Amino acid sequence: MSELVTFGETMLRLSPPDHERLEAADEFEVRAAGAESNVAIAAERLGTPSTWLSKVPETPLGRRVVSELRGYGIETDVVWSHRGRQGTYYLEHAGKPRGTNVVYDRENAAVTTAEAREFDIDVVQDAKVFFTSGITPALSSTLRETTANMLKAARQGGTTTAFDFNYRRKLWTPDEARETLTRLFPGIDVLVIAARDARTVLGFEGDPRQLAHKLGSQYDFTTVVVTRGSEGAVGWHDSVVHDQPAYETDTVDAIGTGDAFTGAFIARRLDGDDVPTALEYAAAAAALKRTIPGDVALVTEEEVEAVVEENGTDISR
């Protein structure tokens, strides 16, 4: 039985090597990439048995995704579909002033038709934590309902629900996101949200500590984590806000940093750590992820602990 169950789409990521432009590329690196599966893998790497749920096309590309995720050690509990396609995205790496560019090709993906009744809800209700993100309900009206139903089923089974707000402007507008995601808030115990999204989408004002307090006070969350990019994160729990700086890192690939952070945070909370300690491990996992190409945080517990220890925390138990 998995302690963590996640639900969402995993795409195939195609990236030209050596910072080549998409329009000039004649070869691509191919990797599985999805927020929810990234979180499951990060948690699994830190010792939390994890399962990823999704709906996947019964095609060579769909099987490619599932095979790769299984290779990372997580369980995959998927609904195989003969309708819809495998979503992909193209990533063009670049520095300033151009910046990294993402091009989605995920219309009519099989996952957009996924309904809660297609999954074994016992898998969700037997877990300790169920996780999904704001990307999933952005993909279709069906997934908006499904996400709500999955959160409701988890809560009914006594499973803690965790949710990364994860706003993507290429998927929907701030108004659309606010209307949908705030309706999900009553079913969420642990919220992770970027400070910029709290301001842009929810219209909240203030510094990250104030944002965490406001979110925790206005909505009935148990824990709120507000991420603040290169400045780290803050965590609100029991009406107390804890500060966590980001750790120094040399960035090879920033994609998936937030997922590594969230997966590590959930894993350490499940292991019994308090919020400040879980934030330290989350920051360490995020820093390590930025040194690794691809979306997935292929880190070890020893590496994460070494970063935490190097930054001044006594991790002996």
TrEMBL record:
Broad EC category: transferase
UniProt KW keywords: Kinase, Transferase
Claim: Kinase is one of the keywords in the record: yes
Keyword Hydrolase in annotation: no
Signal sequence extent: none
GO MF terms held by the record: kinase activity
UniProt domain Carbohydrate kinase PfkB: residue ranges: 1-295
UniProt EC number: 2.7.1.178
Family: Belongs to the carbohydrate kinase PfkB family.
Protein known as: Bifunctional 2-dehydro-3-deoxygluconokinase/2-dehydro-3-deoxygalactonokinase
Gene: kdgK1
